[in-house]
Design goal:
about 210 residues; 2 domains; DNA-binding transcription factor activity; HTH_TetR; transcription cis-regulatory region binding; TetR/AcrR family transcriptional regulator
Length: about 210
Amino acid sequence: MSQPAGRVPQRRNARSNRARILATARQELGRNPDITLEELARASGVVRRTLFGHFPGRAALLDALAEEAAETLQAAVSVGAGVTEPADRALAHFTLALWPVGDQYRMLLALARRDLGMDRVAGILEPARVRSTAILEQGQRDGVFHTHLPAPVLSAGLEAMTVALLEEVNTGTLEDDGTRAAVSTLIAAGVPEKRARIVVDEVAATEG
């Protein structure tokens, strides 16, 4: 039996409501991690029943945001993964590609330890960690990055720095479109500051 035609618009409306709720949650949770679902429903322009129909509780909402973040991050990591280029340019590309994702989901940083758990966050970040380590290993072999730290350890340090920068953006202390973070990442990896700025400017211009 075919479904009534009227159900198609209803499904589209449900998808639209869900997307709007998630988009609003990304914004509002960044401002107030303790926002209630009732307040979030009002901010999303939907009734309480609609929100709870999609997300029966806070855990379900955060789980959906985590899944969305993981998918978006995976897509960003995949960009340029098969391209052969010098390691400093590859790291600049990588950082600039991931910064908008981190910026979009930086509210998860405030919720990670309390609500999601570090294991869940580690799972989300795993593709980025693997890609970052591979770039750093290439750069160390080529003499582009310093070698006094193993690539996985250096990758962890650069990740921590990026998280710290995102937290500063979250508090309003720092404004960055990703270029400052990319330059800082290259310098921390061992690229001279002047060279780091040139590489990031060239890569940013190419992406732009």
